[in-house]
């Protein structure tokens, strides 16, 4: 595999509860099921992706993304945990300490938004996909994720009238980050909890296309299976592989593989 082939995808939206973690977790599982090597980086202080994918509690982990961001390059190999609840998915755990990391980066890093990018250079060619779960803000953690990524997905909660709240701030932020990372491509907005029969969902879909400029063809339906999978710390593949929501994530993984080629 050539070093150019690692695709780094940030899943970003500064609105909380729009399905970022759900997207990262189940996209990782489905990409791995397609036979690719996947690494998940949890940059959210709540560490929900880590609680789902990780076989240990984030508080037990010595080198998390927080230590990695402010530490030396050689910490990268210590930060990666290969033993997870998901087959072929490795993890760099998130941590509550990420809250302090932003201040440390501001104070100490010569280029505060490029620390992650420098560290990930060492992993290019080792993974097919690196997925980054961003926190619900547009501050330095999200900037680091976007500056390090080749692609970005913007999850949007379709059934909610607040689903698009602040999306223009995010697209403006992407333009700023492109000064640092001109290669960053928008894969599109991903509609979560989408129901084509509902008028509010149709309105959000049109408006999302207007504001973001690009939609992923796959949409994710609302399902209790998502919560079930989180409680069981399992993939949808293991919880109910024939469910509608699992098939949607499978379609999403196939669509992403096609789009990034």
TrEMBL record:
Top-rank lineage group of the source organism: Bacteria
Boundaries of every AAA domain copy: 6-185
Family: To B.subtilis soj.
The protein, known as: Partitioning protein
């Amino acid at each position: 595999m050539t070093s150019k082939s690692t695709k780094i995808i940030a899943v970003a939206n500064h609105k909380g509860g729009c399905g970022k973690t759900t997207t990262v977790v189940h996209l990782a599982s489905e990409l791995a099921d397609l036979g690719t090597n996947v690494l998940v980086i949890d940059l959210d202080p709540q560490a929900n992706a880590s609680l789902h994918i990780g076989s240990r509690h984030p508080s037990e982990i010595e080198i998390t993304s927080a230590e990695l961001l402010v530490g030396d390059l050689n910490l990268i190999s210590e930060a990666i945990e290969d033993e997870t609840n998901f087959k072929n998915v490795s993890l760099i755990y998130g941590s509550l300490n990420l809250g302090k990391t932003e201040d440390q980066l501001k104070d100490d890093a010569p280029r505060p938004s490029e620390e992650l990018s420098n560290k990930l250079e060492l992993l290019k060619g080792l993974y097919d996909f690196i997925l980054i779960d961003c926190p619900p803000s547009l501050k330095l953690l999200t900037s680091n994720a976007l500056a390090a990524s080749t692609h970005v997905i913007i999850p949007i909660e379709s059934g909610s009238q607040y689903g698009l709240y602040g999306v223009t701030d995010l697209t403006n932020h992407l333009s700023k980050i492109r000064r640092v990372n001109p290669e960053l491509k928008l894969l599109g907005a991903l509609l979560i909890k989408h129901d084509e029969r509902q008028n509010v969902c149709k309105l959000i879909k049109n408006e999302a296309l207007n504001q973001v400029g690009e939609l992923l063809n796959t949409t994710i339906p609302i399902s209790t299976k998502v919560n079930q999978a989180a409680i069981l710390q399992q993939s949808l593949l293991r919880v109910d592989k024939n469910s509608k929501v699992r098939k949607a994530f499978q379609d999403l993984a196939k669509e992403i593989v096609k789009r990034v080629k």
